[in-house]
C-alpha cells in the first residue's frame, strides 16, 4: 500500500488488561489514530499438532501504512 494509505489491522490480545496496555501504547506513540477493543471471543486453532481453545480480546487498530 501507499505510505498515506489507511489500514485496519486486526490483532488479538490474551486478556483485557493487555489489550488496554497495547491500545494506550499505540495511541501515545502515535502509531494508531484509533483502537477499538472488542468483546472477548473464543478462539479455536491448531498449534503444534493439537487443537487449542482459548479466550482472546480482539483489537481493531486504525493506522497508516507508514506507521504500520
Task: Characterise the protein shown here.
The protein has 68 residues and is α+β, with helices and mostly antiparallel strands. The protein has 1 helix and 4 strands; from the N terminus they run E-H-E-E-E. The chain has one helix at 16-28; strands at residues 6-13, 34-37, 41-47, 50-64. Strands 1, 2, 3 and 4 form a 4-stranded antiparallel β-sheet that branches. A hairpin with a 2-residue loop joins strand 3 (41-47) and strand 4 (50-64). The chain is globular. The model has no long low-confidence stretch (mean pLDDT 96).
Name the structural class.
alpha+beta
**What would you call the shape?**
globular
Elements, N to C (H/E): EHEEE
How big is the Rg? 14 Å
Number of helices: 1
What is the average per-residue confidence, as pLDDT, rounded to a whole number? 96
| Beta strands, count | 4
How would you characterize the largest beta sheet?
4 strands, antiparallel
Helix content: 10-25%
Strand content: over 45%
Q: Segments where pLDDT lies below 50 for 5+ residues?
A: none
Instruction: Tell me the distance between the termini.
Output: 11 Å
- Quaternary structure annotation: single chain
Properties at a glance:
globular, 4-stranded antiparallel β-sheet, 1 helix, 68 residues, alpha+beta
Summarize the structure.
With 68 residues, the protein is α+β, with helices and mostly antiparallel strands. The chain has one helix and four strands; from the N terminus they run E-H-E-E-E.
Give the SSE map.
Layout: E1 6-13, H1 16-28, E2 34-37, E3 41-47, E4 50-64
Antiparallel strand pairs: 1-4, 2-4, 3-4
Amino acid at each position: 500500500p501507499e505510505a498515506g494509505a489507511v489500514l485496519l489491522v486486526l490483532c488479538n490480545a490474551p486478556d483485557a488488561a493487555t489489550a488496554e496496555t497495547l491500545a494506550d501504547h499505540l495511541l501515545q506513540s502515535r502509531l494508531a489514530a484509533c483502537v477499538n477493543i472488542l468483546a472477548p471471543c473464543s478462539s479455536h486453532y491448531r498449534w503444534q499438532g493439537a487443537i487449542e481453545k482459548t479466550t482472546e480480546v480482539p483489537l481493531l487498530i486504525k493506522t497508516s501504512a507508514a506507521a504500520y
